[in-house]
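Case study 2.
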Amino acid sequence: MMQQAVEQAGESLTRGSIKSLLGANKNITCKINPSENDEGTIYVTGSKMRGDFSTRVEGKGMMSHMIQDGEYAYMWLDEDAKGTKMKLDFNQPVPSVPAGSSVRSQAENLDEEVDMNCSNWSPDNSKFNVPGDVEFTDLSEMLKNSMMQNKTGTTAPKMDASVCNQIEDATAKAQCLKALGN
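Prediction:
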């Protein structure tokens, strides 16, 4: 359904999942409203995706961003000069996520159908530039180092799972939490 609506010229109102946008293989931009307090704009071209999201929590507005450039996923908030990045490895299996966990809930939200207002667009590659004023922590390197320490028999230092909380991509967040033993 999503692919048919996006194939039409101009703007189209439709229902679909964020996951369906990623699989549409189109140059599209969509406005989404997953809930009363959330809205966002998603830009997709080839293997690249950007999402800019605003949400209201306890009356306070917050902007978050995510860029997937085909190699890494970057996540950051406007309020902070720090963010996270994680290497995308499409050959790795999706880790199992316990029922009832917030990560499972977020993963299911990627498949949840929401109202979308989509249109074709001529890609603006500047949308996929990672901001230079944000310091990104490379979670894939942290996880790799942790696994190396475990293989050599040394005890890896216990890391606080809060480092994973900035990750909006459900798969990346689940991999982070699993690697930390949470």
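The mean pLDDT is 74.
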